[in-house]
Specification:
PHb_sf; Bacterial Pleckstrin homology domain-containing protein; PHb; elongated; 41 residues; mainly beta; single chain
């Protein structure tokens, strides 16, 4: 892992191979949306 950023309800992880975003939705944050974007080098 290179960097990790935590916002109020979101989390972004930057690794040497991909960017991973976690987005909590709803009032309780039960539903989590994941997005993984590969990084081409």
């Amino acid at each position: 892992m290179i960097h990790a950023y935590k916002m109020v309800r979101d989390l972004h992880l930057l690794t040497n191979k991909r960017l991973i975003a976690f987005d909590k939705q709803g009032v309780t944050g039960e539903k989590v949306d994941y997005l993984s974007i590969p990084i081409n080098q």
